[in-house]
Amino acid sequence: MRSSSALRRQIDIILIHDTAVIDDSAIISENVQIGPYCIIGPNVEIGENTILKSNVVIQGPTKIGSNNEFYQFSVIGEATPDKKYQGEETTLKIGSNNIFREGVTIHRGTIQDKSTTVIGDNNLLMPYVHVAHDCVVGNGNTFANNSGLAGHVVIGNYVTLGGYSLIHQFCSVGDYAFLGMSTGVVMDIPAFVKAAYHPAKVVGLNSIGMSRNGVSDESASLLKKAYKLLYRKGLKLEDSINKIVMLHEETNDENLKIFINSIKASTRGITR
User: Are residues 66 and 143 located together in one domain of the fold?
Assistant: First the structure.
């Protein structure tokens, strides 16, 4: 029986298991660990200190930053099954310090959008999460098991998706938002709010997420006022936005601006 050291080969300071298959065009940085039965396709770049546990498939063109961790049976950078995709060269870009748990799937973009799918930094994607073509995911997000993003979805920063949550194509979810288990999003979700049910209904502010991510008590108080103007006063959308803008002009609060921008940027209409 061979020792564990005999089961892998040392190339400089890159640890690659004997059973891994790596295309000659792939760029593998220092201190990358590639476990058993991983497949690295053409035009893949993997940053330093990244770990591929086992049976991970990465197709290109894909660029991956440093300190990422991919668990078994993840499929990263595969071409989209979207019928409008006809084999054009599109890309996937992944930042640093992300964790992709078992069975995560992420597809490259299409030329009908920006030709790329983007994942930021410090995200946790739990088992069997799916990120479709042309999605843009920010930083510090947590996607629970089996949550899924359809094509062209935009997720902000510090967002939590409950297990089995589904986001319709072209929808956006703003910073610090929270979706409960099995939430079905068909319109945009503003920043800082909680939503639940299918189809999604806004059920309050994400107070716990705000506290955990350092939103001050002063900002939280202003956001509560803005939330009431948008959801509790029976105002028309335009009138509520105008009143929230006036509140921001009085306070110049950064988080209130994030809330306002997430509403104004909506293209599908907000969940209300």
Answer: yes
